[in-house]
Amino acid sequence: MKKITAIITTAIIACLTLLSFSGCALIFNDGSEDEVEGIYGLQQLYLKDYDNETYNFGNKYDYYLIVLYGDKTGKVILKPEDGEETSYSVTYENVLDTDGKTVKQIKINGFLVPVFSIEDGVAKVEFVKSEEAADFAFAPKREVLTYKNVFMLIENGIKTKKYYLSVDKIYNRTTDRKVERAKKQQINNRDKRAGNGEDE
Predict the structure, then answer these.
(1) Could you tell me if 73 and 91 are in contact, meaning their C-beta atoms sit under 8 angstroms apart?
(2) In 95-120, which positions are buried (b, 16+ CB within 10 angstroms) versus exposed (e)?
(3) d(CA 151, CA 140)
(4) pLDDT single digits (tens) 156-182
(5) Which sign does the torsion angle of CA 74, 69, 148, 125 carry?
(6) Is the pTM of this model over 0.85?
(7) 17: phi > 0 → left, psi -120 to 50 → alpha, else beta; which?
(8) Which of 48, 51, 53, 95 is the most buried (most CB within 10 A)?
(9) What is the pairing mode between strands 103-109 and 38-48?
């Protein structure tokens, strides 16, 4: 009996520890509009070309932040490695799911969309204006915003090329102090963003 009680107690402690490390937000977030506000930092930025070659740019930026304020305005702040910090203002709107409560997408107006090119085997990325607002799919359970653009080519079968950008939520509050902390966190995690660039 003591052995069974010890096993149950150990299991409960392990579950509680797992919950504290994974964050209660992963379980209790309901995807409502008031959860959208916050500071989001670069997680992945890559091109997967038609030949399935992946070109990762996640570590090419000291920091890349999207700050969304509660009044539906926002700011994008980015600093390439060995470059100067730039920023620009945006606005955004929430697209709700059929239940009328859960945020299905966030449309960021004025967002500069990543466009990739390959010249002489060297891949490049630049952020350019798009006629249509970039659609970031908001995953409320994971607090990740993603932008994915897939192109198809019919040549000896169907080939695809994918642009991918994702940012994860760093802070719920959008104070200047939190923005500066988010920059430091991005700089500290830059090497971790040098992976292969796989979102699935």
Answers:
(1) yes
(2) eeeeeeebbeebebeebbbbebeeee
(3) 27
(4) 889 898 989 999 999 999 999 999 999
(5) positive
(6) no
(7) alpha
(8) 48
(9) unpaired
